[in-house]
Amino acid sequence: SEDYSSAAQGIFNGVLTGLQQNILVNRFGNESALTAFQVNQQQILNEEKATGQLLGEFIPYFVSILIFAGAMGLAVDAIAGEKERGTMASMLMTPIRRRDIALGKLISLVILSGLSAAIYIIIMVLSFPIMFGGSEVSELSIKLNFGQIAGLVVLLLGMVFLYIAMISFASVMAKDSKSAMSFVSPMYILVMVVGLISMFGGNDSPETY
Length: 209
Fold this sequence. Notes:
Largest sheet: none
Number of helices: 6
Distance between the termini: 24 Å
Number of strands: 0
Radius of gyration: 26 Å
């Protein structure tokens, strides 16, 4: 469940391989004559730490991309799309405050994106045994206590709010859906890069805040 353990295992296997070759060459003059010894390997995992590392590597990447992709289509169509079709102008003519129109759009986008994020996580957690069938990962049982679930929900809501705000701002600045998508595409690439960083972040524990 630690990266340095895997690295140490690789170094140790290299030492044993060299030792076996030296023994066979010195005694028989041929390293392929027979096998000097066998190395038996057994995985010793801290299940809780291994599960946490697995979730920490995959969930931020996939969920970030899926949330952003889902919010991208909804937010662009709800704001830039309505400006392009002319329905936004007719909506502004109605006796409704602009703040209520903006909040209505943002709240509905947050709800839909939040539901999609929850569905993505449930599907990912359920599909982990299938994705990693036959490996030690498939034997891990994913158990989250109430505090961890609450923290995950808060993080997801924060991500949803952030992505909706970014895409909505780009849609407001754009004249039509096509130009809005051109504004949002660099943001999408940035989200992918940030998600990839979480998969190669090492074992450093971040501060709680």
